[in-house]
Write a structure and sequence with these properties.
Blueprint: H1 2-18, H2 22-54, H3 58-81, H4 89-118, H5 121-135, H6 152-172
Helix pairs in contact: 1-2, 1-4, 2-3, 2-5, 3-4
Length: 176
């Protein structure tokens, strides 16, 4: 599931570059914000605690992963605050693409293979099912100041997700 998310986000970056209008670009930015926010929250709630538990250097690995998440969340927050047609959008999307690209390479080249070596396929399959179910309720906006590790994250994430979904609904209403 994580690698599927990576491919989807890479496609969104291509879609941004191919967008024909400011409105289309803003739509892609909103999708990037939503999908990357959910992805980061799920990693922090489920994948990183597992890595911390099963990898011999889990504390260090998790600290590195969280450090990468923090930069991405700050960039997502900046993008989320921009309006349609803001001239800063292109530069921020380029920055986000670099940050996310580094994260994807680190995860797919080192992190995920190490988890696969350490965790049984049965447990990985269970994790995949859990991630798929949890994605429907994950926060859809960046929260760079929220806790990043359980148990506090486990309590904060549902509150953030409820707030995000309310905000998403309010933003979709036609403005008069």
């Amino acid at each position: 599931m994580l690698m599927h998310d990576h491919r989807m986000v890479e496609q969104l970056f291509r879609d941004f570059g191919a967008s024909a209008s400011e409105r289309q670009r803003r739509g892609v930015v909103e999708l990037l914000v939503r999908e990357l926010s959910k992805h980061a929250a799920l990693e922090e709630m489920y994948v990183l605690p597992l890595a911390k538990k099963v990898l011999s250097d889990g504390d260090q690995v998790v600290a590195e992963q969280l450090s990468g998440h923090q930069g991405v969340k700050q960039t997502l927050l900046a993008l989320d605050r921009l309006g349609e047609g803001d001239p800063r959008t292109g530069d921020l999307v380029a920055k986000l693409r670099r940050e996310v690209g580094e994260h994807i390479r680190a995860q797919e080249d080192v992190f995920i293979p190490r988890l696969r070596e350490t965790v049984s396929q049965e447990d990985l399959d269970r994790l995949g099912v859990l991630l798929t179910k949890a994605k429907a309720a994950a926060p859809t906006r960046p929260h760079p100041h929220a806790p990043e590790e359980p148990p506090v994250l486990t309590l904060a994430a549902p509150v953030a997700a409820a707030y995000d979904r309310l905000r998403d609904r309010l933003q979709r209403r036609p403005r008069t």
